[in-house]
Amino acid sequence: MKASSQGKAGKKESGSPGLWTVTALNHSRSVKLNDGHFMPVLGFGTYALEEVPKSKAWEATKVAIDVGFRHIDSAYVYQNEEEVGKALREKMADGTVKREDIFYTTKLWNTFLRPELVRPALERSLKKLGLDYVDLFIIHWPVPMKPGEDLLPKDASGQVILDTVDLRDTWEALEKCKDAGLTMSIGVSNFNHKQLEMILNKPGLKYKPVCNQVECHPYLNQSKLLEFCKSKDIVLVAYSALGSQRDPNWVEKDSPYLLEDPIVKAIAKKHSRSPGQVALRYQVQRGVVVLAKSFNEKRIKENFQIFDFELTPEDMKAIDGLNRNFRYAKLLFAADHPNYPFSEEY
């Protein structure tokens, strides 16, 4: 690992692309993105079930920053950016962090994929956050929905109303947001390799996606997509790395509990660690940026303690062997849309 001189989580630094780096300021391990900015390899996720009070996101984000997290992952659709932004501003005001120490991600929701809606959507997030810019702005899903204020627009029969948008036009609108200084980096989420190639091969492409944020855990290790992304200098970012919350809107209730897996538990016991720490460490060791979501103070602290132990090659092989291509988030209501990303193998 290389200690950088600048110590800012999101700013340009020297070093070769894809190099895991320790920033001098806060010892937050980071990876260099293809646009020269740096992203901490461990991020704090802020998504919560609807019944969780929004104030929990405010409290948990402050705890996460105090513990050492510098990469905060959120999204417009989470409907808690005001609370997360308040936490960030309070931690800046009390001197815990400066703005440049924080790497903040927000996401463009499916109802805003038409190019003329992209910048206003980002500006709305910035207003909620009380920030001048975000570090990363990504397309949340490649499946467009009917524009409007409803997060899940539905017809009279309760079906989600989808839309048709050329994602290359959406991408151009993201490029303009980067040029305007509203976001430092731009990327995508839940894209398959063909959708990534469509962006990469776009005539007049100005900026490559810096990342593809996807569901990734031992039951869905995304090895082929990871290999593809690495070959294109695109960072894979893992969500649901600890399994998933049981949100009935997105996840089937009989889904397996990853952290109860006997092999994960046995490896955790061997290292005197929690199953969650093993699941997170697994991702970091294979070159994946990983998001850890918890609003429990003890677990937030635990989830940050993954840099002082190492899984053996045998551990890694055993965890690789758990792969069963199982998805928690299937987005089944969009399965017939031409942009549905999971029709492809990866």
Task: Describe this protein's structure.
This protein has helices at 55-67, 81-93, 115-129, 167-179, 193-200, 223-231, 262-270, 275-285, 297-304, 313-320, and strands spanning 2-4, 20-23, 29-32, 38-40, 42-45, 71-73, 103-108, 134-139, 183-189, 211-215, 235-239, 289-293. The chain is built from ten helices and twelve strands. With 346 residues, it is of the alpha/beta class. The chain has a single domain (2-339), classed as NADP-dependent oxidoreductase domain (TIM Barrel), CATH 3.20.20.100.
State the main characteristics.
eight-stranded parallel β-barrel; alpha/beta; aldose reductase (NADPH) activity; AKR1C; lipid metabolism; 16% strand; TIM Barrel; single chain; oxidoreductase; 346 residues; 31% helix
Task: Provide a concise account of the structure shown.
With 346 residues, this protein is α/β, with parallel strands linked by helices. Helices cover 31% and strands 16% of the residues.
- Number of individual domains: 1
> What's the CATH class, please?
Alpha Beta
Which bin fits the share of residues in helices?
25-40%
Average pLDDT, rounded to a whole number, is 91
Q: Tell me the number of strands.
A: 12
CATH fold-level topology: TIM Barrel
In N-to-C order, the SSE pattern is EEEEEHEHEHEHEHEHEHHEHH
Q: What oligomeric arrangement do these chains adopt? A: single chain
Q: List the uncertain runs.
A: 1-28
Distance separating the two termini: 30 Å
Q: Give me the CATH superfamily.
A: NADP-dependent oxidoreductase domain
Structural class: alpha/beta
Number of helices: 10
Indicate the radius of gyration in whole angstroms: 19 Å
Query: What is the molecular shape?
Result: globular
Largest sheet: 8 strands, parallel, barrel
CATH architecture classification name? Alpha-Beta Barrel
